[in-house]
Amino acid sequence: MNSPSTPPSDQGEGLTTPVSTHYGMADFARVRKFDAHVHLNVDDPALVQLALEDGFELMTINVDAPDFTPIAGQRAIAIAMADAYPGEVHWSTSFSMSGFGQPGWTERVTEDLATADAEGARAVKFWKDIGMGAEDPEGHLVMLDHPELMAVAEQARALGLALIGHQGEPHNCWLPLEEMTTENDRRYFSRRPQYHMYLHPELPGHDDLIAMRDRFLTALPGLRFVGAHLGSLEHDVDKLGAFLDRFPDATVDMSSRMSQLQFQSLQDRERVRDFFIRYQDRVLYGTDLSFHPSADPVKFCRAAHGIWTSDWRYLATDESQRVNALDADVPGLALPRDVIDKIYYGNAVRVFELADSADDDSAASVGESVPRR
């Protein structure tokens, strides 16, 4: 099989077809890919089957979100899917902040983390309720650099698990609806005012949460950290680059933040393109596709395929497409093939230590329910 970045070049005896520096839409299904941020919250293989058809492996991330399947159920589904599709489905464990600060909480969480590692987890998720809702027994907001959470992170580092951190929200979250840069953020926060921080000035600001995350990472050198949702620095690729420069063990996933990148590339396409080329080893492709029990599998998979192909068109090709979140036509970045191969696959293999999966040629190529938040 040809490698992803080496397309066939012969076109008749003695003739050679010039090799494009970037992929096209025709390459989508055959190139090995990895969606590093999905949520399989239902025991249904529909999304996994679609992923196989479209050339993806999946990282399903457990999280103690109020509108998700209970966390124990998510874990059971993740283990079952990983057992049924070894090499194609991987998973991240998580924990509940319920009971935080009570005797035995830290011991229970660290022991469970060791169990999850033995069961095949590749990472642990620290969710946004840390710093944005969870409280200690005295009613104080729990911040990421609390000693008990540091102990959990130390356990993750000792076990060799990556830590996926969702701290903060998009910068739009601290703006009034009419000043937000993307329609998808306006829609999301108008429907979920409890997460719209502009309405909650008593809670930490965006800069406070980013500083909290950075203190946490400074205290944990060597921790493999994945900043979910572009590390909540999606609004400014220069600030995101500065974060990656400061923390060499950190990477970020792109989940639910494509329209913010596209907003910036409408203003300065080369600035965004240059960011991806410079930090090609530090970014993971991801979507935040969330497959819930209430979803119609056929409609969900149709929407998921549309998201995967739309993102590929933007990142990998030079084609323009209409982006409804911006009400604008957005040209593709046409990133070089080797850059796409890293962002879409190689970086995830390294960060989640999936070398065995990468060596398995059998997975290399194939022939309202999809929230992007």
TrEMBL record:
Domain Amidohydrolase-related, residue spans: 107-354
Coiled-coil parts of chain: none
Entry-linked Gene3D superfamilies: Metal-dependent hydrolases
Name of this protein: Amidohydrolase
Organism: Microbacterium luteolum
